[in-house]
Design brief:
Elements: H1 24-37, E1 45-51, E2 57-68, E3 71-77, H2 81-88, E4 91-98, E5 103-113, H3 116-125, H4 128-136, H5 146-160, E6 171-185, E7 193-200, E8 203-208
Antiparallel strand pairs: 1-2, 1-4, 2-3, 3-6, 4-5, 5-6, 6-7, 7-8
Bound molecules: flavin mononucleotide (FMN).
């Protein structure tokens, strides 16, 4: 295995200040559509970073299920590590890496729980097997072996029979309200383009950052 000499040249047209949307959500939406059109695998996947009660960072990939003027939504187990950590430190960061396009988007903000209604609505739209999976997994807890999940899944199947599967009270959505975004476009010679949007009283302020 050789990582040391592996290099990719980022031959892209770059990102100009004049081409940026005034609103970062619109810029994100445009880049997301381009990632989708380019065939990037799971373009809504992003790395969600939280910190624990000692300030130690913790990061994992989750799927964004919405990105609009309100913010970015994702769904998970409310008793998981990521959900417990935001109770003490609600500021999180998200990183989208669309490597085929040599692009990265970073976003930071505070999270809050989505309303019960919105979580119910999204849960109802999930495939039945995913719904049963949400009931089955005590996410982030230590389990003895895989059989624990299989036994629990059989119990859950028996419990719901052929009927509808209600949303577990311990599962639902989070909404991140961004206060800062950064759009990164790879360029040759490692002189990449970076633009940061910071929220101010007068709206979004855009600055170019050194790569
Ligand atoms: C591509 C991908 C998508 C994922 N999407 C989600 C998701 O939307 N929600 C979720 O809870 N976990 C998702 N996971 C699993 C998480 O990365 C993580 O393992 C899990 O949420 C437990 O994290 P925690 O113990 O830090 O809370 C995904 C993992 C991958 C690789």
């Amino acid at each position: 295995m050789s990582l040391r000499d592996r290099r990719v040249q980022y031959e892209t047209a770059g990102l100009d200040r004049a081409d940026l949307a005034a609103d970062p959500t619109r810029q994100f939406s445009q880049w997301y559509d381009e990632a989708l059109a380019a065939g990037v695998a799971e373009p809504n996947a992003f790395t969600l970073s939280t910190v624990d009660h000692l300030g130690r960072p913790n990061a994992r990939v989750v799927l964004a299920r919405g990105a609009d003027a309100r913010g970015i939504t994702y769904f998970t187990n409310y008793t998981s590590t990521k959900s417990r950590e935001v109770a003490g430190a609600p500021c999180v960061s998200g990183t989208f890496a669309w490597l085929d396009l040599h692009r990265q988007v970073r976003v930071r903000g505070e999270v809050e729980r989505l309303s019960e209604h919105e979580s119910d609505d999204y849960f109802a739209s999930r495939p039945r097997e995913s719904q049963l999976g949400a009931w089955t997994s005590p996410q982030s807890e230590v389990i003895a072996d895989r059989a624990v999940l299989e036994v629990r899944l059989a119990e859950v199947r028996g419990q719901f029979g052929e009927g509808p599967v209600a949303r577990p009270p311990f599962w639902g959505g989070w909404l991140m309200t961004p206060t800062e975004w950064e759009f990164w476009q790879g360029r040759p010679s490692r002189l990449h383009d970076r633009f940061r949007y910071s929220q101010s009283a007068d709206g979004w302020v855009i600055n170019r950052l050194a790569p």
